Each structure stands twice: as structure tokens, then as C-alpha cells.
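Title: Comparing notes on inverse folding

I've been comparing how different people in this forum approach sequence design from structure. To keep things fair, I'm posting one structure and asking everyone to reply with a full sequence. Here's the target:
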């Protein structure tokens, strides 16, 4: 089955093209969806019209892509727990504005339903709210603020993260379930291209979905948030430093250590996690001793040149990130990678080898397959602008194949999307650093079928 192209008219009405087929973009490649790549569009997903971008579909009779001059491209923003395996195909106007910071999945229509190029990687329902009335969330949020009027952190989570950003983690905190977000840092030591809370003045991205935290909470305020959440989520409480509305929490490592110690000293139970860029390996031992359970390290690539182009590190290097991962495993922390997956760059032979080496040699326990929220054409141009001739190893093998091969190389790896509940202290199966041996002695070459874009300027 190959679905029809989905597009929109100037009034924003979304429909399928009667003659053209859906195409998928993976970096510089255009092609039909791969076998078993398509999923019915999950509940709580959204469809976006892409302004200044003309839809492109495949003519099944000629085998040639065709631009629909009066049809806007459409993309799918998939529900949490799903990872996109391809972006939509379109051409864009010369001066088109960069797309907002969302993830853009290839979408088609067949058999009276929409399909998206994606794979479900986590069955956890923690960010599903379809059966929960917004009024219930609002009522519980107001009650929390009423009960704790002097806690600035609670006020920030309720007034900003719940009310303004509609943050799923913040809504869960209001409901007293799953994972509680704990923002702590007003600053960051990276300048990520796709930062959702702060962009440089000269950035081509003009708006961000969230705003940066404007104060530093006290250890007592943090501990109170943790205690409140543990009293309401009694079975599997998770606490996470490092949220979209703040900088990197390791810039406040001393504060985190104090707050974690204060919580644990009062018999505080649960999984304490830190979402971080892992820039400061020297602070990891103190956090582990205080009672941290896990860290989740944000990466767009295991290859240093791509990592550096995206994160634009300030006073740290990719080597520091790798060292932090290794030190965390040596101190018995559960290490996840928050891998910002990008079809056509992440699912390549070169990336597979680099990622397996990073995971295997440094004791990573889990990969969370997250979607990179960014304009796909702009990001690809930025990442590859200095690569005159992309090697064969840059061709996409597809998400499914990539997942299978990485699992073969690192069989202990856990795949998912969310931070797992691990108890107070995680049980680890990842090997200790320097003990892993790559089972692939010679990786086979990947030669996917690439559709020739005859006569079309794809604006790469």
C-alpha cells in the first residue's frame, strides 16, 4: 500500500490528491515509504499546513515527482511515544520563513484514514490526555497553588508550564501522576539551534514555544515539590531536572546536590533523573552520592562534528559529554540518551557505527528515540553545509533497520521514549566502560533505492 499525497488549499482545507502518491524525505533522498514504515495516524496527533511550501507527490504512471503549484505541503506532528522515520517532500519559495520548532512527519491518505511514516517506540500512556477533562487539570493546578502560595517553583509550573505551554509533564504534576518536572536553571552553556526556550538575537528562528525560567528556586522549594509529588504518586514517582523552560541543570549542580540530599534524608523515595547536555563530568559523582538515580543525555548525533554544529557548546566539548556518560555509569547511574532522531542523518551507516561505539564503550542503558523539532530542510542544510560530497555511508537505511542493527550490536539496550521508573537505585545491565566488544566485524554496505528528483529543485 502506498497512500496518496496529502496537501492543503489556501483556505487551510486538508485533502488527498486523487492521482499523486505520498513521498518521503530522508535528508537528501526522496522516495516512496519503506515497507512496514507506515502507521495509522495516532490519536492526539496533529496535522500542520506548511506555508510557502508546495506539496510534491509521485506520478505513478511516469515515476516522476510532480509539484502541485496551488497546493500547500502538509506534515504530521505525531503523539508522544512515536518516532518519525521520514519528513514530507515539498519545494519552498526562495525567501520562505523557517518553520516553527515542531517535528514534521511525512503523511499520506489511504483507505479512509491518514498514515504517517513513524514507528511506535513506547507504550507508556503518561502523556495521553484524551480522556481527561481540561477542567480537571485546571482545578487541580489551582488547588496546588492555593495550598502552597509561597513556593515559586510551583507557581512557575502552574502559571507557565500548565497554563501557557500546555506542557504534558506539568499537567501530570498537576494531576499527581507519573513524572514531575523540576526546572532549576536560568542559564545554559549550549546554544542549540533548536532550543525551545531561548534563541540568539541574530537567530533566524523568531519565536520559541516556551520562555526561560527567570529565577533560581531554593533547595527547600525543590524538595517541597518532590515531597508533594511523592505523596500523590505513591507507586512510581519520577522527578526530572532539566525541562524545556530552563537552561541546563548541571549549571546548578550544587543546588541539585543539596536538594536531592535534603529529599533523600527525609526518606524520600522514587527515581530522581537529570535531563542534561552532560557538559560537566566533575559534578556527576556528587550528584550520584546525593541520591540521583539516572541521567538522560541530550544528543543529536554521536558524531562530534554534527553534535558541535547543533549544540554550539560554550566552555565544554563533545569529549566532556562522553566522559560524563562514562563517569555516570561508573557511579552506578542509569544512563539514557535523549537521541534527537532526524531521518537521513541519524539512520545512516556512519551514525550507526558512531552511536554503537558511544553506547557500548561508555555503558549507556537506554535510548529514548525523540523527534528533533526543527525545520527539516534548514537543519539538513546547516548540518551538511561544509560537506562537498556526502559519502555513501550517509544514505538512509531507515529507522526500522537502524533499530534492529543497533540492538544486535548492543543487546542490553532498552528502547523507549520516556524516562523510566527505576526505583531509588537502578539495576544496571549495561557493561562497564571499556569492556564492550563490537560484534559487527564488518558492517554490510547500505544501498537504498533513491528516487531521482528529475527537473525539480528541492531547495537543499
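Reply #1:
Here's my take.
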Amino acid at each position: 500500500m502506498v497512500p496518496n499525497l496529502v496537501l492543503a488549499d489556501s483556505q487551510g482545507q486538508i485533502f488527498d490528491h486523487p492521482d499523486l502518491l505520498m513521498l518521503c524525505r530522508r535528508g537528501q533522498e526522496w522516495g516512496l515509504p519503506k515497507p512496514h514504515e507506515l502507521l495509522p495516524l495516532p490519536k492526539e496527533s496533529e496535522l500542520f499546513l506548511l506555508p510557502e511550501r508546495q506539496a510534491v507527490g509521485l506520478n505513478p504512471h511516469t515515476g516522476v515527482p510532480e509539484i502541485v503549484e496551488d497546493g500547500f505541503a502538509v506534515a504530521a506532528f505525531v503523539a508522544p511515544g512515536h518516532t518519525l522515520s521520514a519528513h514530507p517532500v515539498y519545494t519552498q519559495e526562495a525567501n520562505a520563513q523557517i518553520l516553527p520548532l515542531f517535528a514534521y512527519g511525512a503523511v499520506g491518505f489511504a483507505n479512509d484514514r491518514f498514515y504517517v511514516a513513524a514507528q511506535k517506540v513506547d507504550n507508556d500512556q503518561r502523556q495521553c490526555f484524551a480522556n481527561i477533562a481540561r477542567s480537571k487539570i485546571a482545578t487541580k493546578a489551582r488547588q496546588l497553588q492555593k495550598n502552597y502560595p509561597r513556593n515559586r517553583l510551583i507557581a512557575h509550573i502552574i502559571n507557565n508550564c500548565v497554563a501557557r505551554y500546555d506542557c504534558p509533564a506539568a499537567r501530570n504534576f498537576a494531576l499527581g501522576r507519573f513524572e514531575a518536572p523540576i526546572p532549576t536553571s536560568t542559564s545554559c552553556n549550549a546554544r542549540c539551534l533548536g532550543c525551545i526556550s531561548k534563541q540568539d538575537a541574530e537567530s533566524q528562528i523568531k519565536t520559541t514555544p516556551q520562555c526561560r525560567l527567570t529565577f533560581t528556586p531554593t533547595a527547600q522549594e525543590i524538595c517541597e515539590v518532590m515531597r508533594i509529588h511523592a505523596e500523590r504518586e505513591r507507586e512510581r514517582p519520577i522527578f526530572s531536572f532539566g525541562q524545556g523552560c530552563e537552561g541546563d541543570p548541571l549549571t546548578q549542580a550544587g543546588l541539585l546536590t543539596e536538594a536531592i540530599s535534603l529529599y533523600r534524608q527525609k526518606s524520600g523515595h522514587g527515581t530522581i533523573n537529570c535531563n542534561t547536555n552532560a557538559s560537566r563530568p566533575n559534578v556527576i559523582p556528587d550528584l550520584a552520592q546525593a541520591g540521583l538515580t539516572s541521567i538522560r543525555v541530550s544528543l543529536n548525533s554521536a558524531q562530534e562534528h554534527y553534535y558541535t554544529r547543533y549544540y554550539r557548546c560554550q566552555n565544554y566539548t563533545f569529549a566532556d559529554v562522553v566522559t560524563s556518560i562514562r563517569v555516570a555509569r561508573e557511579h552506578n547511574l542509569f544512563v539514557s540518551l535523549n537521541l534527537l532522531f532526524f531521518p537521513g542523518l541519524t539512520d545512516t551507516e556512519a551514525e550507526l557505527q558512531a552511536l554503537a561505539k558511544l553506547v557500548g564503550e561508555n555503558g549507556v542503558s537506554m535510548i529514548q528515540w525523540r523527534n528533533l523539532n526543527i525545520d527539516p530542510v534548514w537543519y539538513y542544510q546547516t548540518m551538511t553545509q561544509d560537506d562537498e560530497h556526502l559519502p555513501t555511508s550517509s544514505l538512509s537505511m531507515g529507522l526500522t533497520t537502524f533499530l534492529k542493527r543497533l540492538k544486535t550490536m548492543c543487546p542490553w539496550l532498552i528502547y523507549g521514549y520516556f524516562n523510566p521508573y527505576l526505583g531509588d537505585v537502578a539495576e544496571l545491565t549495561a557493561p562497564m566502560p571499556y569492556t564492550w566488544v563490537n560484534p559487527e566485524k564488518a558492517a554490510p554496505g547500505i544501498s537504498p533505492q533513491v528516487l531521482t528528483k528529475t527537473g525539480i529543485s528541492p531547495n537543499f
